Amino acid sequence: SSGINAEYGIRGSTDNIMDDIERAIDDGVNSVKVLSRDQRCLPGAAATEIELAKQLMTYGEQTPGMEQYAIKKFAEAFEVFPKILAENTGLKANEVLANMYNAHQDKVSGMNAGINLEADNCEIMDVVERQVFDIFLTKH
Hints:
4 strands; two-stranded antiparallel sheet; globular; 6 helices; 140 residues; two-stranded antiparallel ribbon; 53% helix; mainly alpha
């Protein structure tokens, strides 16, 4: 099969802007490369991380002995990503975590509850319905 080549001229007013544009293009190209190897995706916007944290916490609470503390701490580590997303968008991390855990209590649609980064306030959305996905291989 023959490949398609394209060349673009990109200009920016400062070196910092050009660096950001270069990183964005590089990220996009790498995403296409990864998706060409494996098309599987997971719910994005921190929905996967909170669901994993919730399920690990539940498992940790059912585990006897000292192992439960390690399992619970491992579950807490998954909360870092939604916290960073919230803080980077100007939202309160604790409020976002509380709302996400609350949304993930719904066994039917809660699994797909993620942060709406386009909202001005702490809004949780169904990421599958809004087609916000993360590449499986980046989570594997």
